[in-house]
Amino acid sequence: GQNIDQPTEMTATEGAIVQINCTYQTSGFNGLFWYQQHAGEAPTFLSYNVLDGLEEKGRFSSFLSRSKGYSYLLLKELQMKDSASYLCAVRSKAAGNKLTFGGGTRVLVKP
Amino acid sequence: DAGVTQSPTHLIKTRGQHVTLRCSPISGHKSVSWYQQVLGQGPQFIFQYYEKEERGRGNFPDRFSARQFPNYSSELNVNALLLGDSALYLCASSLGQEKETQYFGPGTRLLVL
């Protein structure tokens, strides 16, 4: 089976940086995704990593280490609108295109 | 271009009833996946369809069924509703079956009383 762990909640200050960690156990790893989900809304795609290293997209960056089963999402220059849940999801070759999600990390940005 | 669309947006049913949820994928996308998200948790995989065939099934009872139509839209059916079926039901579409990013629709919020 697959197991994905991420912290339940994090708090940070507007303008600061927050790093959300995700650890996973899976066979046949075939990619890791980060989604942002505002309360009551659908998840929106943020980033995708399949090879080791850092992917940068504006204020958001995502890192992957396949040997360690570890990823993080880095949010820089935090804005109030970044308050949301951040979902880590893993895809495995053994499961087609099925995504297995962690429980999500709720980030609260304070002024 | 329109994103993934789902209908209805909200639904209230009573225990034992049946429900049909609908999803239209992004134009050109041939794969549709369904997820259930209970409040405070991450989405849980229910089904994946690609080219009108079931390509994956999650750990859900047989009360849950789905199908995909020739235009790649999809329906999720749930029979004999239980209180625990109350959740946000998300549809996600992708170009293909295995390697592409999934994009989510706005979801259908189902409340079972």
How would you describe the overall organization of this protein?
The complex is a heterodimer of chains A (111) and B (113). Chain A has 111 residues and is mostly beta strands. Chain A is 0% helix and 59% strand. Chain A is globular and about 45 Å long. The model of chain A has no long low-confidence stretch (mean pLDDT 93). With 113 residues, chain B is an all-beta fold. Chain B has no helices and 11 strands. In chain B, strands 2, 4, 5, 6, 9, 10 and 11 form a 7-stranded mixed β-sheet that branches. A 4-stranded antiparallel β-sheet of chain B has the order 1-3-8-7, with no helix packed on it. In chain B, a hairpin with a 5-residue loop joins strand 7 and strand 8. The radius of gyration of chain B is 13 Å and the shape is globular. The termini of chain B are far apart. In chain B, 37% of the residues are buried. The mean pLDDT of chain B is 94. Chains A and B meet through strand 4, strand 5 and strand 10 of A and strand 4, strand 5, strand 9 and strand 10 of B.
